[in-house]
Amino acid sequence: MLAGRESLVRLVGKRRRFLPNGHSLSTLVQSNDGEVVSVETVEGLSENSTKVEDEDSAVEMVTSDWVICPVCGNRVRGEAYNVNCHLDSCLSRGTKRKLTQRTLLQMKFCSGSVAHTSFCESEQLETNVDLMGLDNNEGKTALSGFIFSSTIEGNYSNCVVIPSNPESSMETCMDGSTVNGINSDGVDNKVEASLAINNEVPNCDMAVSVNNLSGLVIETFIVGRRFSDEKEINLGAAISLLRDPKNVKDPNAIKVISADAGCSKVLGFLPRDLAQHLSPLIDKYSLIFEGSVTSIPKHSLNVVPIQIVCCNMNLQSSMESGDIEVFTFLWKNVLTVATSAKIHPPDVTKYQQNFCLLLQEVLRSNPHLFTDDEKEYMESFTSLPVDSQRLFVRLYMRKGPWFRMSNILYREVLNSQEAVKALCAAGYLRRFEDSYGMHDNEMKEILDLVTLSELREIMCMLKKNCKHGTRKQDLIASLVSLYKDGLCLLLPNLILDRTGTCIKISSKVESLLWRAERLFFLNSEQDLSAFLLVDMGVVKYPTYRCIISEPIFTDREDLLAYEEAIGVAQLMDQSLDDNDKESVLRCMKIADSRMCGSSTNSFRSTESEPLVIFLSCFSASWVYSKVVLLGVSFLEREHRYNDAIVLLKRLLICFPHDGRRGYWRMRLSIDLEHMGCPNESLSVAEDGLVDPWVRAGSKVALQRRVLRLAKPPRRWKVPSFSQSVKREIREVHIQGRPLNCETGMKSRFYGEDGEQCGVEQLALQYYAGEGEGWQGVHTESGIWLTIFGLLMWNILFSDAPNVFRTRFQTAPLDLETDSFYEVRKDIIESHLQKIQDGMAEEILITSWELYLGTACRGVNWERNSLSELRAVVTCSGGPFLASLCRYLAQDYRSWSSGMPDLVLWRFHGEYMGQMKLVEVKGPRDRLSEQQRAWLLLLMEIGFNTEICKVSPLQVSS
Asked: Entry's Pfam families (predicted)?
């Protein structure tokens, strides 16, 4: 695999089925000044735009030009929305204007309409009031501070706080309370909040007394209808409640029975959470409830909305003071649960609720990143029929993109046909019926639904040769070719005759939801299945507080640029899979042309703001740098070293504060040597040694390179680091009976017990025998990262600004940056002193018992037992553990890999022991620079370290 490919794959994640500018990115246009630009899909129309209509929606394509902003003088892509957003930010921050306001408004800034775009941020904030469901006064108050959300449901009870004012600061606690550190009165306000689907917060602080029960209406539902005696219910039918303490499934169960004359049939039950609080009141205080049915569901087994009223009078006289307090407490709980039930109806399935939760949080947290139309469109999902919501979420989580209606059958979706009809009417789904003029890719996708026998039948009807052994993909390619050439215009009808109606998620909705998922999880590795893993108890996330004072994307322009960069990365990844060298080169040119011109890069990499550098991974320039780096590997494989040198120099210029600079400098030095420039190669390596961002293995590699190249007459002075780099590492040589000696295959040997094993297991057997008496495990960096996570747990999840933003994080966002140590320096050093003083084992045991099973970056709960971890911690000693944790805290990215293979220990008495770290190498293995860096570091801090080299046993003839 090409260097950099794996990181690009992680960045792209699950490839988007619909790439908005996929066709345009593959077609490059040469601008007048020679710069490579692309044809882009934009939301606004311009005078030279071309409309391409399909059956989903009219997609507007425009040839984008770069224009100069008359306010700040920066270059901006000539798209209506980008221009207006850029002007908004320029004018709002008071940049000195080069033109008068009148001239600015009169000039033709770009060849496009500026309609539907507001120049005033306040107008956008006014629009957000409707989103929150508040009146004007409440909306202005909320928007002047923060828009917050939290949840207390399930294990993912982390909180997310997004400021509408980036200069403000808010803290959100795990218990659901939110502390606003800055407000108009200068006083901290605590607000109790629970995350609701429609943004409503239950308000149950009303005065409660036993005197106000009579006539107080509680709205709830009848559930468990499949266990009822009566399937038909009439609107307004009288009901009453009856306790069911002998219920096997729930001793708190409360039946809902018909109160009509001469009829006492069971209609169902009250919801379990409401019955839990209401049943003690009925049992202890003999409360009597009556009510009526307020709505009739379409299906007889659906939940039935009802209203109930307490009929008891004058209870206070029969109660003591203690009873009144208990009664008041229980009654408050009843009101809270009943109010919450309005927000989360019992008939909402878990995955449906999770999906709505995702949409709601994204809209509430990032209102400035969506247009009014997009907000309205996403908000309309909750107004769809219940069946439509469930069906859509089911389809969205499937592979697709097309689905046969005949294959869609879900138990919770009562009427699939009506659900699809509503989704199509709302624009969420698209039907394939008699669609002529489809794109070739769409025809290929729809043909994937057709079975092999059906494809053969179609080929026979078209009187085309179809051999029995022909593969399905070959038949599809033949049919697509015929359709493309216009030789089979009836192909859609032939497909429909066999598949029936087919549907797919519309491209517009898929694009919006892809954006929503990315904003919600902030990575490409998580999706809606993360909710499912939590609900099933498979994954438990740690608890922490979110203190957010700065948005990740300052405006929509940054987000669109980032999404476009992800699209280029996806196209690059796909082109490498297809071995399409021409497309690979196109992607490289696009990334190269846009990488250094990104304003986001200059913001994220300024020395004045070192603590927000960890947010740079959400910038377009950072994504383009990944594409360019992969392009460098591609060019080196093609022996195009000159082109690779140009790209590497540009990376070093554009990213002065990046942890990858060591690798870039190493590759640049190597490529210059390939081109016959040893002097320049040496200079690049020497410059890298004074670069503060060149660390760990990259620094050792450059030092060794300088020593090799810096020989007379190029350099006469021996570098000061030569003794350290040339320091000999103790080696131990062992032999074993080889199982295989083939190049390119991992070495295998027969162990002492005759079983097959790798070189690491063979080395463990050697150290356990021969009178050594060492115990140990083959773990590489894994056991040390686990120990670091457990020892530093409270540090990892301590309060720090802007590092926790979602409820699905296993580490702070700045863990792999210098910011992690700088922001927490005082508490880290205080904690490391405790470790050095001998408290490491106590801290380890406490963390293990408190957080066992909780997901945390680097911590593997299953690989090593607590006894093994305690043995390692005890034998390592406090000073070594403190030093190790300090290195990882200061530069987790550089030092979290490459540690020796084996961890060995042996005890002398109950509390004293020895530790040894061993790097094992097979017959054809050699040390990597990162491994060498670790061994040299361990030797410097006085640790027992060696290399164990395994070679085949020499058999004498």
From this structure: FAN1_HTH, FAN1_TPR, HIRAN, VRR_NUC
User: What is residue 30's predicted lDDT score, i.e. its pLDDT?
Assistant: 35
CA 598 to chain centre: 23
β-sheet bridge partners, residue 426: none
Alpha-helix runs per DSSP H in 504-555 = 507-521, 529-535
Residue 933 scores a pLDDT above 60: yes
309-334 pLDDT tens trace: 888 755 555 566 667 778 888 888 88
Pairing of strands 266-269, 254-258: antiparallel
Which residues pair with residue 756 across a beta bridge? 750
pTM of the model: 0.71
Cα distance between residue 821 and residue 825, in whole Å: 5
Cβ(933)–Cβ(695) below 8 Å: no
Taking CA atoms, 670 is separated from 627, 642, 954, in Å, by 20, 12, 38
Q: Find, among 590, 595, 587, the residue nearest to 616 by Cα.
A: 595
Backbone angle region of 687, left / alpha / beta, with phi > 0 → left and psi within -120 to 50 → alpha: alpha
φ and ψ of 383, to 5 deg: -90, -5
Q: Angle 641-654/661-674 helices, nearest 10 degrees?
A: 150
Q: Give dist(CA 581, CA 600) in Å, integer.
A: 29
Q: In terms of C-beta density within 10 A (0-12 exposed, 13-18 middle, 19 or more buried), how is residue 392 classed?
A: buried
Whole-number Å distance between alpha carbons of 531 and 557: 30
Report pLDDT for 505: 92
Element (H, E) at 952: strand 945-952
Run of H or E residues at 921: strand 913-921
d(CA 520, CA 501): 34
Residues 6+ apart with CB under 8 A from 99: 70, 71, 107
Residue whose pair of structure tokens reads 């649960």 in the numeric block: 337
Task: Output the DSSP codes for 608-642.
Answer: T-GGGGGGGGGSHHHHHHHHHHHHHHHHHHTT-HH
Distance in angstroms (rounded) separating the CA atoms of residues 462 and 481: 13
Angle at 82 between CA 80 and CA 83, to 5 degrees: 65
C-alpha span between 847 and 792 (Å, rounded): 9
- Please name every residue paired with 734 in a beta bridge, in sequence order, or none if there are none: 950
Close Cβ partners of 113 (under 8 Å, ≥ 6 residues apart)? 44, 45, 46, 80
DSSP character string of 30-70: E-TTS-EEEEEE-SS-BTT-EEEE-SS-EEEEEE--EEE-T
Per cent of the chain over pLDDT 90 is 41
Burial readout 331-344 (b: 16 or more C-beta within 10 A, e: otherwise):
bebbbbbbbbbebb
Per the listing, tokens 């790097």 go with: 919
How far is Cα 396 from Cα 381, in angstroms, rounded to an integer? 13
CA angle 177, 182, 187 (to 5 degrees): 80
Average pLDDT over residues 929-935: 93
Q: What CA–CA distances, in Å, run from 436 to 280, 343, 400, 454, 864?
A: 65, 44, 21, 20, 60
Domains, the chain, with CATH or none: 5-24+540-599+609-726 (1.25.40), 213-345 (3.30.70.2330), 374-523 (no CATH), 729-780+898-956 (3.40.1350), 782-887 (no CATH)
Separation of alpha carbons 530 and 525, rounded Å: 10
pLDDT at residue 786 is higher than 80? yes
**What pLDDT is attached to residue 47?**
31
Asked whether 290 and 259 are in contact (CB, 8 A), the reply is yes
* CB count in 10 Å sphere of residue 162: 23
Whole-angstrom Cα distance, residue 357 to residue 156?
12
> For helices 350-365 and 386-396, what crossing angle results, to 10°?
80
CA dist., res. 501 & res. 488, Å (int): 20
Q: What is the pLDDT of residue 91?
A: 58
